[in-house]
Design brief:
3 copies of one chain form a homotrimer. With 143 residues, the first copy, chain A, is an alpha+beta fold. Chain A contains 3 helices and 8 strands, in the order E-E-H-E-E-H-H-E-E-E-E. A 5-stranded antiparallel beta sheet of chain A has the order 1-8-3-5-6, covered by helices on one side. The first copy, chain A, has a 3-stranded antiparallel beta sheet with strand order 2-7-4. The first copy, chain A, starts with 5 loop residues before the first strand and ends with a strand. Chains in contact: A-B, A-C, B-C. At the A-B interface, strand 1, strand 3, helix 3 and strand 8 of A face strand 3, strand 4, helix 2, strand 5 and strand 8 of B.
Chain lengths: 143, 143, 143
C-alpha cells in the first residue's frame, strides 16, 4: 500500500571560519533524515543566503581548493563590479548565481541517493559567518 | 495531524523590454501562493524557455547589472559560436546552461522561506519577449 | 477531488561513447512517466555522478557543441588543477559545479511541461562511461 506523502521542515547550521571555504554537510543531513524518520521522497536542500552556494560533488581536498579557485577566477573578488561600491562581496553573489542556492536529492529507505563520490557541499564565499541550511523533505515517513 | 499533500500548478508572466534584463518575481510568486492557499511544502519555479534563466539573489541595482555583465563576459554575445550561424543568441542558451532553468524553494505557513536579501530573479538574455514562469507547489494546502 | 500524492523512484541509463558528449534524455524520461502512470506533480531528475551534469536546453547540434566548448573553456581539461595530480578529470568535476547534478521539472497530465525548444540533456565530461539518471516523481498517479 502506498503511504500518503508528508512535508517536514528542518535545518542544519554551519559556522564558517574563512572567507572562502567548503563544508561537507552529508553527515548532518543524513542524521536529520534518520531522526525525522524520512523514508521515500525528495529532500530539497536550500540556503537562505546570497553569498554562499550549495553543490554536490567529491569531497577531495585538492578538488575543494580547485572549486574555490575556479569561482574566484570567474567572479574576481575585489574586481570592478558595481556592487563592490556598496559592499565588497560582489564575487560571492556572482558565485551563487553560477552554482545555485539549492539542490534536490532523492531519498530512498531513509538515505540520500548519493553516488559513491558525491557529498553535499556548502560553499562559503564571504565568511566567516553563521549560516543556515534549510531542509524540506516531501515524501513518505516511517510510522 | 499531518495533512495530505496536494499538487497545484500555476504560472506568472513576464514581459521583458530589453535584450538583457532582470525582473524580480518575488511579489508575483508570493501573491500566487496566497491566492492558492499553499501552506507547507516546496515550490518549484520553472521556466519553459532556453534563452533566459532563474536565480535567487539580492535585487540591488548594481548587482543586477553585475550579473548581466558576468554572463555576457562568460558567454560572449555575437561570439563565434556554431549556434550563431542559425540564430544569433547562443550566448543566451549558454547563460541558461550556467544559471539554470529552475529553482525549488521551501514554503512554510504560505510564505517562501527566502533569506533577508533573497529575491527570485528572472534573467532575460534574449528579449524583449513575453515569458512564462511555471509554478508547481507540492505540499499541504489550507482547507 | 484531489488525489493524494505518491512517490515513485526509477532510473534510466546512458552509455556515453566519448570523453565529451551530450545525450538527449527527453524520450526516455517521458516513456518512464507514461509507464508509471505519473499524472500531476514534479519530477526530480538527478545524476549520482560527479563528472557529468544535467541541463535543459535546445538539442540543436551546433549549440550542443557550443555547450561543450564553453565548459572546456571555463574548466580547462588538463589544466593545472590540484585534483589532476590524482585523477586527470578536475575539469569534469568543475563543469558539474557550474551546471549542476539535478533539475526539477513540473509534470501535468503525464507530460513534462517542457517548452517548445527544451530537451533534457545529459552532459558527459569524462566518458565513455555507463551512467545512471535517477528519476523521482512526487505527485498524483493514475489509478
Amino acid at each position: 500500500m502506498a503511504l500518503a506523502c508528508r512535508v517536514m521542515h528542518g535545518e542544519v547550521h554551519v559556522e564558517t571560519r574563512s572567507r572562502f571555504e567548503t563544508v561537507d554537510l552529508t553527515r548532518a543531513i543524513e542524521g536529520w533524515l534518520r531522526e525525522k524518520g524520512a523514508a521515500n521522497g525528495v529532500l530539497t536542500i536550500y540556503i537562505p543566503h546570497t553569498t554562499a552556494a550549495i553543490a554536490v560533488n567529491e569531497a577531495e581536498s585538492g578538488l575543494l581548493s580547485d572549486i574555490l579557485d575556479l569561482l574566484k577566477e570567474l567572479t574576481r573578488p575585489g574586481g570592478g563590479w558595481r556592487h563592490n561600491r556598496i559592499d565588497n562581496n560582489a564575487h560571492a553573489h556572482l558565485g551563487n548565481i553560477l552554482v545555485g542556492p539549492s539542490v534536490s536529492v532523492p531519498v530512498r529507505k531513509g538515505r540520500l541517493l548519493l553516488g559513491t563520490w558525491q557529498s553535499v557541499l556548502f560553499i562559503e564565499m564571504d565568511g566567516p559567518r553563521r549560516r543556515r541550511v534549510l531542509l524540506t523533505f516531501v515524501g513518505e515517513v516511517e510510522e
